[in-house]
Fold FAD-dependent urate hydroxylase.
Amino acid sequence: MKIMIIGAGVGGTSAGIALKNLGHDVVIYDKMRENRPVGAALSLWSNGVKVLNWLGLGREVAALGGRMDHMAYLDGHTGEQLCRFSLEPVTRQTGQRPYPVARADLQALLMRTFGMERIHLGMQMVAVSDDGHTVTATFADGSTDTADMLIGADGARSITRDHVTRDGGDTPRIERTYSGYTNFNGLIPADPRIGPADQWTTYVAEGKRAAVMPIEGDRFYFWFDVPQPAGLPYDRSYGTAPLVAAFGGWAPGVQALLGAIDPEVSLNRVEIWDIDPFHTWARGRVAILGDAAHNTAPDIGQGACSALEDTFALAIAVATNTVSVEDTLRRYERSRTERAGDLVLRARKRGDETHGYDPDATAAWYESLRGADGAGIIRGIVGNIEGSPINLGVGAI
């Protein structure tokens, strides 16, 4: 069977590897012209790592991952440590160590593994049609390609989602929702003034966060969350000025972080949006995957992991259901929408708590961190993992 995938991100390339491993003729198209992903790094929690292990990439992913042994919260104003605890229970309870990884490094690994000769960059899909026998994708340059199945892993502004969710009319039914904050992120050399090289360190105050995670190469992935309206003007020439304005009076560790950022090397600004959960992921021979299906705020670190879960579920459906392409994609849809939608809502709830939208709730969260042993936080992290399809119905074992 020939399968077209639109989108060469984590979801699209992982799905490409899985479907190619099943013996199908798979081709990937993406509008990007080079590997320049949005966002500097991502959290691969145990469920996401397990999918990559299943794809045969366990050793390579472990080499890309930072060693994150501990987690700590600090008062953003004073630098006082509120709590610090081991993340070993996550590994013990789930059977897999989590890894923060540079997004470009992971995406490059997935693209190489799939095969660059079957990835066509600079190809923006503008339309999809399905005649019941084949699917046709039309691209901005006027070219077309046909396949037996098309998977749209084309991101938060998915053209494929528009096709799948139209209900007999011309207007797509799905709209994005602003999460209320902007995220700044990038990579810097690890620096003990900010936090230990084996620790996820987060400074919190005023509904804002400044955090670092260790990744391969003695580097930190950093991010700042700034609650603010959508659509504020920003130009790359501003550099770190918005961060200095928002965090200039914060603790010495945050000042060291601000001073380490080279905007010319690594600084991204992303308004955070998500999509209300919905349950129409497939239409005929076309289905969606990843952010196209469940655009999720990063507050629980499950966005990429959820896309990898989609890959696992899609491949299992393709491998085990033989009635028709349409039936296979409906079964994939039914296996994923509830779980993925639940993670979207969990991330949204977490973001509401941490970003000061309800000041009393955020103040209570800060107070709960003081002297915490981490058990509740570990329970939340494992709770996000244990419902994964990669665990084959046996919880977090």
Observations:
- The mean pLDDT is 94.
- The longest strand covers residues 176-189.
- Residues 54 and 312 are 9 Å apart (CA to CA).
